[in-house]
Specification:
binds zinc ion; Serine Threonine Protein Phosphatase 5, Tetratricopeptide repeat; mainly alpha
Length: 386
């Protein structure tokens, strides 16, 4: 393989393309052949990106490995190991790469190693280590670490809940035009977390983040347009914003788009579209969408089964589908879903045999989560059987 280096002094860009006209790093226009042993880590990194753009992920992985102990190459290598991109997924090896980069003072490496500790991936879970690393990188003005640290303060992960500290760190990231920081700070202004409520600022910050194509910001803009908070109420805009966010696969936005189609908010009512978006959100684990799909199936509103004859089998199928959805939902501790699973077991719906023991267990779990209907059902069952 032949490599060509940009000839500008200090530019280390290297390409595999013989006929490249302009260097994307410096704008230089002269390239000279370079032997592999003279390629710098930054050159290997540019080759890695070029291979990735061309779709050759294994080659991209090989290139970033050839950058050796360079922190940026190590982080790229680690990310690829973490995501299984161009190489087998290996969380421990990924964390090793991040650790080697962090040991050289790389904020990126520290932040990524912090994430391994936060999630317990490749390293044993430790909030203490995660926060130590985030703080180091945040103090070096590294925006992703500032966002992570802000999140820890907002939700009290490994530290006491501290709204002011959360808003401070989000704000530091926002100052560097980091869209996640802008968005998170915008939500602080919306909910009065660590700052005075100020919806105008929420709108400003969400717009900035949305301009940088940070999709969750579109979702929030959709909510603001739907409610007329900080902006003029505009349901069509709301639906459009939700759709933008939903197209990136954000479950809560997919749920919102489903709701728009179901109820005709800013769009023509379209139950088939509603089902399409609700099921996408439900499959991605959105609780509200799962319960909604369950009810739609149970009540026969789901358009996905329209072409089946409405005979006994259809009813059975509806109920089965409903039970499926409720089962999925119940795994996530939703008391309503547990109550309904109990109901299905008690009545023998969904093609399941009647099972009062299962029903009681489900009702009890739902009742313990404060579900009043489940409590009544449990009392009813216990009166009848004991
Ligand atoms: Zn150049």
């Amino acid at each position: 393989m032949e490599y060509y280096r940009c000839e500008s002094p200090d530019c280390e860009f290297v390409t595999m393309q013989e006929d490249l006209e302009v260097c994307p790093l410096c704008g230089g226009m002269t390239f000279v052949p370079v032997p592999p042993e003279e390629i710098t880590p930054r050159g290997w990194l540019s080759l890695c990106r070029e291979a990735a753009r061309a779709g050759d992920q294994p080659l991209a992985y090989e290139f970033c490995c050839r950058g050796g102990d360079d922190p940026a190459c190590l982080c790229e290598q680690g990310r690829r190991l973490y995501n299984g991109k161009g190489t087998a997924r290996d969380l421990e090896k990924a964390a090793d790469c991040f650790e080697r980069a962090a040991a050289q003072g790389s904020p990126d490496g520290r932040c990524l190693l912090g994430l391994c500790f936060e999630k317990g991936e490749g390293r044993p879970q430790s909030w203490e280590n995660a926060i130590f690393l985030y703080k180091q990188a945040a103090d070096e003005n590294f925006a992703p670490a500032q966002c992570n640290l802000g999140w820890c303060y907002e939700f009290g992960k490994g530290v006491a809940v501290d709204g002011k500290a959360a808003a401070y760190w989000y704000g530091m990231a926002a100052l560097k035009k980091d869209p996640r920081g802008q968005y998170a700070l915008g939500l602080c202004y919306l909910n009065g977390i660590g700052v005075e409520k100020d919806v105008k600022r929420t709108v400003q910050l969400c717009r900035l983040a949305a301009e940088a194509d940070y999709r969750p910001a579109y979702y929030t803009m959709g909510e603001l347009y739907e409610q007329g908070t900080g902006v003029k109420k505009d349901l069509q805009q709301a639906a459009q914003c939700y759709r933008w966010a939903a197209m990136s696969g954000l479950p809560m936005a997919q749920f919102a788009v489903g709701r728009c189609y179901e109820k005709g908010i800013g769009v023509e009512k379209d139950q088939a579209e509603a089902d399409r978006w609700y099921s996408a959100a439900g499959e991605a684990g959105h609780l509200g969408a799962q319960v909604t799909m369950g009810l739609r199936c149970e009540l026969g509103l789901c358009t996905k089964q329209e072409n089946i004859d409405r005979d006994v089998m259809t009813v059975l199928w509806y109920r089965r589908a409903a039970l499926q959805w409720f089962r999925q939902a119940a795994r996530q501790n939703l008391s309503e879903a547990r109550y309904r699973m109990g109901l299905y077991a008690e009545k023998g719906w969904g093609g399941e045999p009647c099972n009062r023991v299962v029903a009681k267990v489900m009702y009890r779990m739902a009742a313990e989560q404060g579900n009043a209907e489940a409590r009544k059902a449990l009392e009813r069952l216990e009166r009848r059987w004991f």
